[in-house]
Amino acid sequence: MRGKLPRGGALAFVALLLALLTSLVLVPTSAVAATTTSPVIGVWTEPASSYGFIIAAIEKARKSIDLSMYELKDPTIEQALINRAKSGVDVRVILNADYEGVAENSAAMTVLKAGSVQAVWARSGQIFHAKYLVVDDVVVYIGTGNFVPSDYSSTRDFWVSDAQRSDVSAVVATFNQDFDGGGASGSPSGGLVWSPGSTQRLVNLISSAHRSLLVENEEMDSSPIEQALIAAARRGVDVELVMTQDLEWTSALDHLASSGVHVRLLDGAQIYVHAKVLCVDCSPESGTLFIGSENFSTSSLVYNRELGVVTSTLAAVRAVRNAVDDDFANGTPVVADRTTTPSVYEGTGLSITSVLASIAPGGYESLTAHTSGAGQSCALSVVLPSGYESESSGLGTTMANASGDLSWRWRIGTSTDPGTATATVICGATKVSRSFTIT
Predict the structure, then answer these.
(1) Do residues 108 and 78 make contact, with C-beta atoms less than 8 angstroms apart?
(2) Considering 235, 259, 279, 321, which has the largest number of Cβ atoms within 10 A of its Cβ?
(3) 35 in a domain, yes or no?
(4) Is the peptide bond prior to 149 cis by the omega test (within 30 degrees of 0)?
């Protein structure tokens, strides 16, 4: 397993409200503040680099090691941690327990505890998807990859090292409270990006792009991220997105492709995209880079413990740009099928700008619209072929952004009858409708 996360889970009502509020208060491009970054001192691209640098970092520790990991199945890393613990180094490890964490990490937990390592399970009820290592409280290694040797040779991941004192102190402070079972937010510093609560930070980063945007991620299930990518493409930014092909993201990727984002997919025989990176206006001379554990899903951005960092260090920018460019060049373009329907359906000051022409039961339909009223509250309803109105999550009321753009995404139930469905958008006294086919 490559660390792919569940789409939902038993999420508290308060957390759900937070997710909804996060998606409604996105800052328009014109209001985005200057991006805060952190310098990094090292960068590693996987699979080319392998994980020897992690072993070397552990072996250099003289005082302390703090490790937070989603999946740990590497006997060499486990033994390196044990060796340092037995030599007197204070070695502490947090392993994810939620979702399938106990099953995935039990063997490592047993070995580490038997070897004098202070290993604990992450607090229950929250996925700990962060991947970082702190050595001697002077450098933190932040990455996208799990410590699973079976994935090393076939998986695209990145790691960076950050020695900025305030960043390291913030990571250690967060680790301390997580190790003790506390539930506070991550300690802010410089370019650090913590989840829960990273949606706005990443949307702002996307919104700061002027010329180009390179994107690589394992998942695509966050409406705010998708809207930000679409908005960037519509204002003339060259947005290139590469992922590994997965039917779970087909609807979202089709929506992005139909809205001007250049989407390419790698198949199962090619390198697996596990990386989570954004490269803004990146060139051989400059750029701003996000790298971290955050997948582009509501779970990852709003609920999980995650850690990433934003940097403009040129070596990191170049490394990520080169790798993502190569992956994009090797991918197959996604071309959304809109040939059976016009692209725009208009009312007075309101238009439906895209909707999937056909969708199978179980798939995710998406619809975008534009209203002349920025910040206007609008509602989407769908009448199914049976004549009943859909009650799917994702429909209902949302608010137009500063550009007047609206977006919805919802699931077609697996038992839905085939036929023609009708989507209706209402903004104030104006209403527009569009039919689509359930196959």
Answers:
(1) yes
(2) 279
(3) no
(4) no
